[in-house]
């Protein structure tokens, strides 16, 4: 039987509850400690989730003094970087919630810390475990599309603006881009093998979040609720990306991959934030001179993608495998979000420069 792991959870908000529910389904995992900066909140979390024997702390440094195999970092976005680095330096493997960080500089420091500590840094993108997302990845990677030169992706919600820490610049760093935009980017970049981004020209706005007609905390809304960007990559690839928490539209359309030999259309479930499922997949190609559309069967499945994300992290720690979704890869996702925010602020195209790691 694989080694029984001891896991700590840093941060005890809503997403931490999802982590602990997944861990509790695993007989080879013990959630041994929880930390939250608000006094008493960790202990309340432990009691609510019936974590017998777990210790509660209001300082994550004290949690990291324990003999733990790994930690889930479930803090507000702005502390993902520093908390993950602290855990890595303490010799713990890290599963950090999305977004990886707030800035590119933080992401670089996280990856460097993981390398120095020889510990795993994995980023929590559960849509990768959806069988239909995997089918899209496999089709694109098969080479059947030829040279992919243009991609359209993104989506959003007609109304779906969160509250609390999500709308605070100080705590979240960014809004829709960090919350759901990172999923859309990961969907296409993972399928393409995470090409290197070169430049981005972008704009962001918050017309809905700052309007009390649409948001109950409009006077506190400090982040973007919409963003769009034209991103240039190596290999003459261009990605047209857009994301929104709110809009007067039912959808921003399907994800499209245009290749020299074929095209792929991926239609999302719902409005298409890409944190959900897929409704249809279609391949557009020529057969004997005939323009042909070939539907790809969509799998009806019961996969709990959140559980699979946590399970893969646990198994990787037990087996000594590399990070399932390595920070060294997701740094390019973070670099794009960082570039979008800089471009929007400067109102011009900006370069994306990722240091050699």
UniProtKB/TrEMBL annotation:
Its EC number is 1.-.-.-. Residues 5-125 form the Gfo/Idh/MocA-like oxidoreductase N-terminal domain. InterPro entries: Gfo/Idh/MocA-like_OxRdtase_N, Gfo/Idh/MocA_oxidrdct_glycsds, GFO_IDH_MocA-like_dom, NAD(P)-bd_dom_sf. This is Oxidoreductase YcjS. The keyword Oxidoreductase applies. The keyword Ribosomal protein does not apply. SUPFAM superfamilies: Glyceraldehyde-3-phosphate dehydrogenase-like, C-terminal domain, NAD(P)-binding Rossmann-fold domains. One of its GO terms (molecular function) is oxidoreductase activity. Residues 133-260 form the GFO/IDH/MocA-like oxidoreductase domain. Keywords: Oxidoreductase.
């Amino acid at each position: 039987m694989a080694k029984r792991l001891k896991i700590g959870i840093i941060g005890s908000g809503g997403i931490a509850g999802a982590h602990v529910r997944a861990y509790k389904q695993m007989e080879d995992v013990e959630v041994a400690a929880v930390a939250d900066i608000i006094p008493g909140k960790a202990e309340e979390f432990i009691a609510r989730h019936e974590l017998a024997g777990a210790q509660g702390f209001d300082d994550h440094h004290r949690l990291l003094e324990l003999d733990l195999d790994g930690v889930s970092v479930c803090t507000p976005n702005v502390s993902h970087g520093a908390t993950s680095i602290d855990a890595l330096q303490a010799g713990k493997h890290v599963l950090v919630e999305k977004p990886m960080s707030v800035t590119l500089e933080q992401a670089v420091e996280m990856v460097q810390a993981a390398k120095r500590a020889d510990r795993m840094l994995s980023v929590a993108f559960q849509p990768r475990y959806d069988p239909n997302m995997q089918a899209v990845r496999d089709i694109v990677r098969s080479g059947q599309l030829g040279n992919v030169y243009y991609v359209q992706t993104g989506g959003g919600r007609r109304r779906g603006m969160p509250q609390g820490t999500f709308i605070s610049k100080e705590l979240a760093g960014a809004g829709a881009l960090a919350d759901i935009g990172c999923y859309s980017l990961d969907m296409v970049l993972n399928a393409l093998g995470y090409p290197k981004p070169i430049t981005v020209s972008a704009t962001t706005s918050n017309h809905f979040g700052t309007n009390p007609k649409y948001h109950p905390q409009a006077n506190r809304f400090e982040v973007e609720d919409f963003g769009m960007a034209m991103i240039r990559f190596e290999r003459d690839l261009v990605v047209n990306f857009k994301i929104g928490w709110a809009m007067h539209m039912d959808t921003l359309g399907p994800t499209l991959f245009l290749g020299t030999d074929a095209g792929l259309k991926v239609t999302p479930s719902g409005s298409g934030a890409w944190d959900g499922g897929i409704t249809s997949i279609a391949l557009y190609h020529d057969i004997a001179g005939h323009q042909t559309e070939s539907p790809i069967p969509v799998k009806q499945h019961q996969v709990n993608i959140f559980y699979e994300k946590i399970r893969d992290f646990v198994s990787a720690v037990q087996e000594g495998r590399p990070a399932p979704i390595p920070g060294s890869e997701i740094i390019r996702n973070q670099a794009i979000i960082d570039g979008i925010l800089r471009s929007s602020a400067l109102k011009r195209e900006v370069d994306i420069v990722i240091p050699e790691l």
